[in-house]
Amino acid sequence: MKQRYRYHHEHLVFVKERRGFRKIVWNGVIYLLAIVFMTVAYYIVYSLFFDTLEERAQKRENALLSEETALLTDKMNRIEKVIEQLQDRDKEIYQTIFRADATPLHTVNHSDYERYLQLDNVELAKHAGKVVRDLDSRAAAVSQLINRLTVRLMDMDKDSLLAIPLLQPVKNEGLTNVGASIGMRIHPFYKLLKQHTGIDFIAGMGSDVYATAVGSVVLVVRSQRGTGNRVEIDHGNGYRTTYSHLSEVLVARGQEVRRGEVIAKVGNTGMSMYPHLHYEVLKNGVYMDPLNYFFIGLLPEDYDMLRQLSTSSGQSLD
After folding, report:
1. Among 12, 36, 134, 178, which one is least packed by beta carbons within 10 Å?
2. By C-alpha distance, which of 112, 80, 91, 240 is closest to 164?
3. Is-above-0.70 flag for pTM?
4. Which of 21-41 are b and which e, b meaning 16 or more Cβ less than 10 Å from the residue's Cβ?
5. CA of 8: how far to CAs of 16, 18, 141, in Å?
């Protein structure tokens, strides 16, 4: 450290300045406080504008966890939808074929997924484990329902299965040739809400109409009024199906028919807006929703598409 001097006014000379112990201590305290202040200021500025290695690693880990959480959310949504479809399909099978209620699956509400993005690693891991256990439980429940359904089907004799109207009565490969289904619909001529007792299939004039199950033809009507040309088939076990607005009838009363056999041609007879087939399913004299019986050759998503198309049509064609 350089030696400091001060001017002596009486002797008119520069003399060495002597520092006292107190001044030395005071200067040391000032230097120390300055160092502490600079260090704190540097740390604050660095923390605001720069990340440490640990912070960068933590941010990368959080980003990966967020991505994994988003993927898990998407998978959970899709699994939830599939399980709901399976449950609905199982319920419809039991109610329409076995006339019994299916055992409901245990459901858990996972709708508020966004809040899980705010969980820390431990909480997220706990929640993920809970979700996996819940999905395993529900998958086991679905498996049990399928096993019970298989047992019920095996217990039924072959003739009983063949008598269930499971086939679509016209070719519908694109699954788009479906009109209004059962329920209250606007009548095309009266423009009033009326009970629609079956489902409409849009098809070209003269298209083949198929028997949806084995049975015996119990009624053949040829008319230009009401339901037009119509065929009714008794399948046994309380099942009957009707096919209306036909252009041509290819079977006779008392004739035995097989599932998939061509029995008529699509037409526009009776009170029909344009060529289509009006198809009905009755169980013990009660009109059933034909959609509940279309299982052959349909995947769950195909069945869901058919139901959406048929229920979204507010007007019938007859």
Report:
1. 12
2. 240
3. no
4. eeeeeeeeeeeeeeeeeeeee
5. 10, 13, 103
Q: Residue 156: is its pLDDT beyond 50? A: yes
Provide the angle, in degrees to the nearest 10, between the axes of the packed helices 121-155 and 53-93.
20
pLDDT for res 171: 87
Interacting residues of 19 by C-beta distance below 8 A, sequence separation 6+: none
Q: Judge contact between 227 and 241, C-beta under 8 A.
A: no
3-state secondary structure 259-295: CCCEEEEEECCCCCCCCEEEEEEEECCEEECHHHHCC
Per the prediction, the chain carries an average pLDDT of: 77
Q: What residue segments make up the domains of the chain, in order of their start?
A: 5-49, 77-155, 183-312
How far is 263 from 66, CA to CA, in rounded Å? 59
CA-nearest of 56, 59, 76 to 116 is 76
- State the average pLDDT over residues 91-120: 51
Q: For residue 56, give Cα distances in angstroms to 44, 48, 62, 70.
A: 17, 13, 10, 21
Placement of tokens 């990340």 in the chain = 51
Find where tokens 């009326």 sit: 194
Place of tokens 């199982």: 90
Which candidate, 278, 262, 191, 183, places its Cα nearest to that of 228?
278
Report the pLDDT value the prediction gives residue 279, as an integer from 0 to 100: 95
Half-sphere exposure for 194 (CA within 13 Å, toward CB): 14
pLDDT at residue 1 above 80?
no
**What Å distances lie between residue 29 and 11, 26, 171, 200, CA to CA?**
34, 5, 96, 96
pLDDT of residue 152: 63
Place of tokens 């609905």: 88
Q: How far is CA 179 from its chain centroid?
A: 23
CB neighbours (10 Å) of residue 215?
23
Distance of CA 257 to the CA centre of its chain: 38
Class of domain 183-312: mainly beta
